[in-house]
């Protein structure tokens, strides 16, 4: 693999196709990655980006097409072979082992038999030289998401790859951490490495990428130089048409509106070895407003959602108040009966039972609130009523499906999320708490869901949105609070909030330090 | 003095099959697979070991047969749960039910026959050391194997790269697969190792402990071995300690019955089972600690995307 | 060679219906091989095993007697397994049901009349349910693995029964045989059609229980709760269903049905307590539950099939001199094949031979396992 002309393509992909059952996830994909370039792979959720890179890394086997590495046809049969070729991968869902140390995690992906202590020393040295400090002895389960990503990156770099694939790397980082990552990537480019950068964030692609390949519905729809495009033109290529912009009329008279959801001095001890404690959280959400909670994943958002929803009730009944009444001691059913509704982060397995029909999934959150309508005498389920109600929601939310009443798992992420949100909206709840409303959802569905949440608030409900997606929060929130390490900041009114301010809070800066850092930057 | 040594010797004899079966299952569970068929594999080892020893007259051939039968039987479980992704709990149960039935059928003609006994392997000179001499150096061969096995498994799991890989699969098979580790292949080998150990443990019962064939002669030892793994928090040296504690309980109740202690013999006989429950309660009540120690992918079926 | 599983987008209705039949066919084939190995003509053996035991009316009664406990226990276990709760101690709950249900006829034999039997049945259910509460309590309070505790309690129950019939409950006029007194007539479960055979009301209990549990599971909110908690526990928690309450519900329901089976067996088929009152019904019922696809109506059919394996085992023993353990082997194989065939419902299976490497440039050939 030494005799190559400079400027030639390191990787060429010709007509690569992958079919899952009836779905063509990748349809005759062509892609070139030159030496020493950062190449963007752009596309919406479900466009086929992850499937494509899994084929490049040998975890999925293509149905047809070919891959050329340094001009030579190769069949990448396994990740081991990909690594030997010189392909390194930083996964979106990290492939790390929580019960092992960072050094052991790194050792597992290296094929040499050198002792762990040697590997640890190498990893430490490399991590400091790239400005990504890492303690090789720490247990991965104890690390933050950003630190875990560092392990993935260092692990990848230790294999001295020629091509590094990064799958949505900034989705788990603060804006400041992302800047740091971009510096690292630029340094790698200057060292002659190629980078395949997968993202749906247009601004960062415009900022660091030399070329872009855009995917839509499994097909390549164009190649371009992102620096010559606008965010809007890139978005149009990704989505295929103009996405309806979310409209947010300013909220009026919020200060005097009735508080519908109040959280008072909410604390919680960690429930599992690797979970985050909640520390003295205070927040008020009033009728008519949308409050956003920003934060890097794994800073206690999941624990916070469980506590607010009542999946885990509190000792202190006054720590959560719904419509002016104590709800802290109640379970989720009790809180629903007080007028609250909840949408959890995970769709399959939490918000919906994957192997159950949509109509049965309707019953999941509404068997008690609509008990009379859906459940008859002696606990018999009224299947006609739940079917009719689920069809009503499917229509209202424009849920696309292949059968009249399919299993939840048969729906795409976006359509299932529309159903889950619609299931709660259908009740006209006074309080709505949503965790990651549009995570992994296509742009059209995301805009629809966001607009509905604003609409719900403006019609007089209190809406609390927890999200990792800052763009989303800036689009829909009237104020943004930040969760870091189990502590919630004061909400910043949207007029005062900036990416920098919120980003610093996400990184754990004290609110008082914000101005100072801003001045120097 | 001699009585004490004899009791200690019998404790070791009672503990050895528990230790071997539990060490094997520990490796299986460390790879993320829960094989509830230990009892079935053990009884197959017992009947195979007795049968081969009885028919050939050589307890050593019996020993090999016990190991082989346990391994082959576990292969059945491996094909089902690893290649066909069946429910591990249900498949393990069916392995036990099938093993109890098959062994009963295979053993019909062995009932009441005198079997071959594996002779003690005295290490010359060292047995003369008072007390510990006979305890440590005057035992049956499987005793030495059991101790060596425990040490070897400890070394393998925590000192070798392959052991690290095995533990990583138990922690997250999806991550391991993404790194290109052959999850299914490792698990096959772990399950077969566990089966061989269970077979050996069964062979110990019918070639050393009571050299004869009695239907259902494992009497729940396979299940106790499973409990020992939980009790030991998936650590080999704690399995060793646990096995000897249970060996002591087992021998203690037998001696109490022999001495005619005025307690119903059935109550004494149920002590090992009750002790298992008590021990499980004590070890499991700290939920956080249990979660820390349990291999995270234990019992989850793994089917890679193609 | 290796197998590859390819996930189906939707569960296959075809294989969902066919799988028990395929499994049964495979068991027959494996059984034929087994009989051939034992030196018996498989056709003759099957004739004796599967046909002769049900060729006369009185034999059908025997089939019902064997099927009743299997169905009763299997129906209860299906609720547990649907909830992903692993009660494998039904054998012990069966025994405790038999013991507690026998309190009246053994300790108060002078108490007679129409109240005796209903009370005995009630006691039996309470005994089984109470015994099943132990693993439920340990699981919910101390996070203890219910598989191991419920199983350990089987051994304890067997020893307890052994002690009772050899000790305090032994029939003083029984020539030192380990058994209790014969129950008086009002403590005996009546036969259904005494003219044609011995089958008793236990079989009716089994059918009623199957129908009731079927309604519970398919039509009622409680059944929905069981299915949600079993298939996606987090979704169940999101729905506000309590997992701890479910553990108690499932254990107590299955314990009560196993207890009912126990006392029905004692007061129906046996008529007194003996050291052994079950030929492993509690374990065989696990197979029944899976063969019946955890569906109460399927379990009725599966219970009859497994009852036949018991009768067949006895038949080949007396006719061909083969150990009646062959029944256990058949049962074990059947469960294996059922579990294996169920894979076809969610996956397509692709067989891959020793694939030739597709590329010479590969530095290391990827071996197949």
UniProtKB/TrEMBL annotation, chain B:
Keywords: Cell membrane, Membrane, Transmembrane, Transmembrane helix. It is a multi-pass membrane protein. InterPro entries: ABC_transp_permease. One of its GO terms (molecular function) is transmembrane transporter activity. Signal peptide: none annotated. It comes from the Bacteria. The chain crosses the membrane at residues 6-28, 33-54, 60-82, 89-111, 141-158, 188-210, 216-234, 241-261, 267-283. This is Nucleoside ABC transporter membrane protein. It comes from Mesorhizobium tianshanense.
């Amino acid at each position: 693999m030494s005799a190559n002309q400079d400027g030639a393509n390191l990787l060429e992909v010709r007509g690569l196709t992958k079919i899952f059952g009836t779905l063509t996830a990748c349809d005759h994909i062509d892609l070139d990655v030159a030496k020493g370039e950062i190449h963007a792979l752009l596309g919406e959720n479900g466009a086929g980006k992850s499937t494509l890179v899994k084929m490049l890394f040998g975890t999925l086997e293509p149905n047809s097409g070919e891959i050329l590495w340094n001009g030579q046809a190769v069949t990448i049969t396994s990740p081991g072979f990909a690594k030997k070729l010189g392909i390194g991968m930083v996964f979106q869902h990290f492939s790390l082992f929580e019960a092992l140390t960072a050094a052991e995690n790194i050792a597992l992906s290296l094929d040499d038999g050198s002792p762990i202590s040697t590997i640890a020393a190498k990893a430490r040295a490399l991590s400091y030289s790239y400005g990504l400090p890492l303690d090789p002895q720490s247990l991965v389960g104890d690390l933050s998401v950003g630190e875990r990503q560092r392990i993935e990156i260092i692990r990848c770099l230790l294999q001295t790859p020629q091509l590094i694939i990064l799958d949505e790397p900034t989705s788990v980082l603060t804006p400041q951490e992302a800047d740091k990552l971009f510096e690292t990537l630029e340094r790698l480019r200057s060292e002659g490495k190629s980078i395949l950068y997968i993202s749906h964030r247009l601004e960062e692609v415009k900022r660091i990428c030399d070329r872009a390949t855009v995917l839509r519905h499994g097909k390549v729809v164009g190649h371009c130089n992102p620096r010559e495009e606008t965010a809007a033109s890139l978005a149009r290529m990704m989505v295929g048409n103009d996405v309806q912009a979310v409209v947010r009329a300013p909220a009026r008279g919020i200060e005097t509106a009735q508080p519908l959801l109040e959280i008072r001095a909410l604390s919680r001890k960690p429930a599992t070895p690797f979970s985050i404690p909640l520390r003295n959280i205070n927040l008020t959400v009033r009728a008519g407003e949308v409050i956003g909670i920003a934060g890097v994943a794994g800073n206690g958002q999941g624990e916070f959602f469980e506590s607010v929803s009542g999946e885990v009730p509190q000792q202190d009944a006054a720590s959560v108040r719904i419509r002016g009444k104590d709800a802290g001691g109640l379970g989720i059913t009790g809180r629903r009966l007080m007028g609250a509704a909840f949408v959890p982060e995970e769709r399959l397995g939490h918000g919906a039972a994957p192997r159950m029909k949509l109509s049965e999934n309707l019953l999941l959150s509404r068997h008690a609130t609509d008990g009379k309508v859906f459940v008859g005498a002696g606990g018999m389920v009224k299947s006609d009523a739940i079917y009719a109600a689920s069809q009503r929601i499917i229509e209202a939310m424009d849920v696309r499906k292949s059968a009249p009443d399919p299993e939840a798992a048969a729906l795409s992420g976006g359509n299932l999320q529309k159903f889950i949100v619609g299931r709660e909206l259908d009740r006209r709840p006074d309080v709505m708490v949503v965790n990651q409303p549009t995570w992994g959802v296509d742009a059209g569905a995301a805009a629809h869901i966001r607009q509905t949440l604003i609409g719900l608030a403006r019609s007089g409900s209190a809406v609390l949105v927890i999200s990792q997606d800052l763009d989303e929060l800036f689009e829909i929130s009237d104020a943004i609070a930040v969760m870091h390490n189990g502590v919630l900041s004061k909400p910043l009114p949207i007029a005062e909030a900036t990416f920098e301010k919120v980003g610093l809070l996400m990184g754990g800066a004290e609110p008082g330090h914000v101005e100072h850092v801003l001045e120097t930057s | 003095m001699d009585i004490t040594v004899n009791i200690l010797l019998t404790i070791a004899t009672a503990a050895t099959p528990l230790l071997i079966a539990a060490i094997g299952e520990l490796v299986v569970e460390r790879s993320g697979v829960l094989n509830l068929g230990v009892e079935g594999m053990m009884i197959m080892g017992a009947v195979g070991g007795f049968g081969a020893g009885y028919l050939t007259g050589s307890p050593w051939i019996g020993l090999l047969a016990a190991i082989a039968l346990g391994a082959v039987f576990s292969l059945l479980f491996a094909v089902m749960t690893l290649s066909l992704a069946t429910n591990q709990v249900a498949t393990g149960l069916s392995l036990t039910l099938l093993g109890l039935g098959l062994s009963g059928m295979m053993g019909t003609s062995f009932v009441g026959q005198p079997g071959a006994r594996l002779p003690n392997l005295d290490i010359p000179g060292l047995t003369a050391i008072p007390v510990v001499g006979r305890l440590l150096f005057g035992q049956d061969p499987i005793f030495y194997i059991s101790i060596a096995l425990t040490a070897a498994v400890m070394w393998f799991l925590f000192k070798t790269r392959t052991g690290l890989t095995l533990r990583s699969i138990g922690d997250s098979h999806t991550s391991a697969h993404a790194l290109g580790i052959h999850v299914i292949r490792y698990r096959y080998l772990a399950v077969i190792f566990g089966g061989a150990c269970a077979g050996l443990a069964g062979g110990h019962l019918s070639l050393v402990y009571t050299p004869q064939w009695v239907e259902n002669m494992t009497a729940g030892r396979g299940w106790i071995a499973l409990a020992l793994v939980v009790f030991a928090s998936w650590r080999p040296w704690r399995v060793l300690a646990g096995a000897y504690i249970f060996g002591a309980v087992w021998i203690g109740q037998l001696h109490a019955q022999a001495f005619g202690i005025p307690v119903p013999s059935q109550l004494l006989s149920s002590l090992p089972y009750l002790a298992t429950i008590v021990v499980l309660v004590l070890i499991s009540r700290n939920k956080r600690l249990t979660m820390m120690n349990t291999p995270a992918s234990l019992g989850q079926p793994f089917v890679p995307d193609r | 060679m290796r197998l590859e599983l390819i996930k189906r987008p939707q569960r296959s209705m075809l294989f969902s219906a066919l799988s028990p039949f395929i499994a049964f066919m495979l068991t027959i084939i494996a059984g034929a091989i087994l009989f051939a190995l034992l030196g018996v003509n498989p056709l003759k053996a099957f004739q004796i095993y599967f046909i002769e035991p049900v060729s006369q009316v009185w034999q059908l009664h025997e089939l019902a007697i064997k099927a009743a406990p299997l169905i009763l226990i299997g129906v209860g276990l299906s609720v547990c397994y649907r909830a992903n709760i692993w009660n494998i101690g039904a054998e012990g709950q069966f025994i405790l049901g038999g013991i507690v249900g026998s309190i009246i006829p053994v300790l108060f034999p002078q108490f007679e009349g129409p109240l005796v039997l209903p009370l005995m049945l009630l006691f039996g259910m309470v005994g089984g349910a109470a015994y099943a509460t132990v693993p439920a309590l340990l699981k919910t309070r101390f996070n203890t693995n219910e598989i191991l505790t419920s199983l350990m309690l089987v051994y304890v129950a067997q020893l307890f029964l052994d002690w009772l019939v050899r000790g305090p409950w032994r029939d003083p006029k029984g020539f030192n045989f380990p058994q209790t007194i014969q129950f008086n007539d009002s403590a005996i479960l009546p036969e259904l059609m005494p003219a044609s055979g011995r089958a008793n009301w236990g079989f009716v209990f089994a059918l009623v229980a199957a129908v009731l549990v079927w309604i519970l599971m398919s039509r009622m909110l409680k059944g929905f709760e069981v299915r949600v908690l079993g298939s996606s526990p987090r979704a169940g928690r999101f729905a506000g269903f309590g997992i701890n309450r479910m553990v108690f519900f499932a254990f107590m329901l299955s314990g009560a049905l196993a207890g009912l089976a126990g006392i029905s067996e004692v007061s129906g088929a046996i008529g007194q307590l003996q050291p052994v009152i079950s030929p492993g019904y509690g374990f065989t019922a696990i197979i029944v539950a899976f063969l019946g696809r955890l569906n109460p109506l399927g379990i009725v059919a599966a219970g009859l099939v497994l009852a036949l394996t018991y009768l067949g085992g006895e038949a080949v023993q007396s006719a061909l001199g083969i150990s009646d353990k062959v029944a256990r082997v058949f049962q074990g194989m059947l469960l294996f094949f059922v579990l294996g065939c169920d894979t076809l419902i969610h996956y397509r299976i692709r067989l891959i031979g020793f694939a030739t490497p597709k590329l010479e440039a590969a530095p290391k050939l990827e071996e197949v396992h």
